[in-house]
Structures are given as structure tokens and as C-alpha cells.
């Protein structure tokens, strides 16, 4: 190749690389980047919040597990919320194993952090949702607020997997529930931060549905109900998937993309896992632009790990991430 030809080729290659870099950089933002996490990332059912510059993750585990990060990517495990059982736990869930606590939900309102959580046993509707509060997460001083809602084997719902959301008018709601009886919603009193009034079923799905997380997106005018469908907790054999439906009302009906009501099993899957991560679920939505969840690492023989991604919205108003 002549010298002039080699120079032209190099310029062409350089231009291509510059164009590729520009497109890739833009794409990494437009196509929902997954955060590069390090440190202790072993979790089930994570719930995420920021307090100042500190990132906090609460998750299923003994005493209610806590992790924090100063940069949002490198996580350190802190002390659990509980080191002994509150007296009321045994009254509602007599067969609970030790300090096993499930699926927490952290919510900030009026200068207080409200941490909701579940106690239960597998395969039973003998369950309860509890509440503990603090003015400062980093301060580490939590106050137990007792039971929020409970259920038993005769109940229509299973009182687990709480999630708190604010509607377009600032009213507060809690979604909760699981499996055959589906997902329910109830209004929350802003003074007690506990339910008031009736509970309404808004989603069901044969084969498993739980871990609801609702968010209102003012840019689209819809309420989005994210759920975990399938079965968790079996490592790489877990069949969990993250799915979503949407509604113009906080009380529904919520519809999947194909128009099926979520009360009739509708659900649009947005993450079914891949060759690296099995059984994604237990999701939590922070604001409208971050999704936090767990998935089972194939490379680590099914260890449950924390995953965080930027949540994006397509032109039709549906959420997605990579």
C-alpha cells in the first residue's frame, strides 16, 4: 500500500473509532447502563435509598440486613437492624425461624425513614408486615413501630413484601401480597404510616407473583406495577422474572402491553435473566430512573447478588434496562 493510501486508511480508521466511541458512549446512557458493583453484594430482595451522599441497601436476612456505599458501587455490610426479636413477632408468626426477616422496603417521608419488612414462613399465609423508623440511617438508632398488617391461613391475602408509593396527589399507598391470592393495595395514613380502609386485589398470576413495586411516572402519566413472577430461592434453577403492567389509576386496572389485565394474569416481562444471571427479581424502583434487584450468579454457583441499573423509558412509555 502506498504511503498516501496508508495515511488515508489510518485517518479513516481513526474517524471510525471516534464515531464508535461517541455512539457507544451515548448508547451506554441511552440503553440503560448496569452499575459495576464491588464489595459485599450478597442479597435477596434489596431495597435502596440515598441519605446525603451515602447509598443504603436493606435486604432479606437475619435481623434485617444492611449494606452501605460511599460511591454507589462498592458495598460494605453493616450491622443488622435487629439483634433480638420484638415481643410482638411471636404473637403473629409463632413458627418464624430465628431472626429471619424478608423483603424490606425503605421509604423517606416528612423527615423520617420508614423501613417496612415481613416475617413469615415458607408456604404459609401466617405472616406480618412490621415497621421500624429512624431520623438518620447513618445514626443507626431505630425505633420499632410494631405490626402494620397481618394475615393467617384464612386470610384473602398474604401479608408480605410491602412497598410504599405516593400517587400524583401525594396520597400514600402500600402494595403487598404474593402467590395464589396475588398483589393487594391499601391506603396509608400519613400520621401513623399504617393502612387505613380496605385492601384491593390488583394482580394475580398462576405459577407465582410477589415482590410488588409501584411507581408513578409524571412524564408518562401512568402508574407502573413491577412484580416478580415465577419462583425464587433455588439458585440457578430459580424461574423468577421481572414483569410490569401500567394504569392511569393507582387502584388499577393494570394492563400488560398485550392489553391483559394483571388481575387476570397479565404481565409484560422485562427481565428473564441471561447466561450470567438467573432468576432476577425482588426488584425495587428508586425514583423513576434506577432499578435494584437480586439475581443468581451462574459463575458463583447460584449465589444471590445485588444488581443495579439505570431504568429507561421508551417512546411508548414502557420501562426497560439492560
Describe this structure in words.
The structure is a single chain. With 322 residues, the protein is mainly beta. It has one domain (37-320): Tachylectin-2, Chain A, CATH 2.115.10.20. It has 2 helices and 23 strands. The protein has helices at 3-30, 89-92, and strands spanning 38-39, 47-51, 54-59, 61-62, 65-69, 74-77, 100-109, 112-119, 127-134, 143-151, 163-166, 172-177, 183-188, 195-203, 209-217, 222-229, 241-247, 268-271, 277-286, 290-297, 303-310, 312-313, 319-320. The strands form 6 sheets. A 5-stranded mixed sheet has the order 1-6-5-3-2, with no helix packed on it. A 5-stranded antiparallel sheet has the order 4-7-8-9-10, with no helix packed on it. A 4-stranded antiparallel sheet has the order 11-12-13-14, with no helix packed on it. Strand 13 (183-188) and strand 14 form a beta hairpin. It starts with a helix and ends with a strand. The model is unreliable at 1-31 (pLDDT under 50).
Amino acid at each position: 500500500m502506498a504511503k498516501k493510501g496508508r495515511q488515508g486508511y489510518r485517518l479513516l480508521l481513526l474517524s471510525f473509532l471516534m464515531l464508535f466511541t461517541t455512539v457507544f458512549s451515548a448508547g451506554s446512557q441511552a440503553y440503560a447502563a448496569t452499575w459495576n458493583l464491588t464489595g459485599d453484594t450478597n442479597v435477596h430482595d434489596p431495597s435502596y435509598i440515598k441519605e446525603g451522599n451515602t447509598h443504603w441497601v436493606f435486604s432479606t436476612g437475619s435481623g434485617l440486613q444492611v449494606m452501605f456505599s460511599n460511591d454507589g458501587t462498592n458495598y460494605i455490610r453493616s450491622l443488622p437492624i435487629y439483634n433480638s426479636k420484638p415481643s410482638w413477632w411471636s404473637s403473629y408468626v409463632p413458627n418464624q425461624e430465628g431472626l429471619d426477616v424478608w423483603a424490606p422496603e425503605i421509604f423517606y417521608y416528612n423527615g423520617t425513614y420508614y423501613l417496612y419488612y415481613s416475617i413469615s414462613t415458607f408456604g404459609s399465609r401466617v405472616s406480618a408486615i412490621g415497621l421500624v423508623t429512624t431520623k438518620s440511617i447513618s445514626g443507626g438508632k431505630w425505633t420499632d413501630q410494631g405490626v402494620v398488617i397481618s394475615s393467617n391461613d384464612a386470610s384473602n391475602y398474604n401479608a408480605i413484601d410491602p412497598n410504599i408509593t405516593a400517587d400524583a396527589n401525594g396520597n400514600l399507598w402500600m402494595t403487598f401480597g404474593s402467590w395464589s391470592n396475588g398483589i393487594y393495595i391499601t391506603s396509608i395514613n400519613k400520621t401513623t404510616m399504617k393502612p387505613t380502609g380496605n385492601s384491593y386485589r390488583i394482580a394475580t398470576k398462576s405459577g407465582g407473583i410477589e415482590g410488588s413495586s409501584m411507581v408513578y411516572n409524571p412524564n408518562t402519566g401512568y402508574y407502573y406495577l413491577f412484580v416478580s413472577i415465577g419462583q425464587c430461592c433455588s439458585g440457578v434453577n430459580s424461574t423468577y422474572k421481572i414483569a410490569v403492567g401500567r394504569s392511569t389509576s393507582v387502584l388499577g386496572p393494570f394492563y400488560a402491553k398485550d392489553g391483559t389485565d394483571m388481575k387476570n394474569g397479565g404481565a409484560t416481562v422485562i427481565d428473564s435473566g441471561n447466561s450470567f444471571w438467573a432468576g432476577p427479581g425482588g426488584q425495587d424502583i428508586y425514583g423513576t430512573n434506577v432499578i435494584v434487584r437480586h439475581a443468581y450468579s451462574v459463575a458463583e454457583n447460584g449465589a444471590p447478588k445485588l444488581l443495579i441499573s439505570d431504568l429507561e423509558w421508551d417512546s411508548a412509555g414502557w420501562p426497560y434496562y439492560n
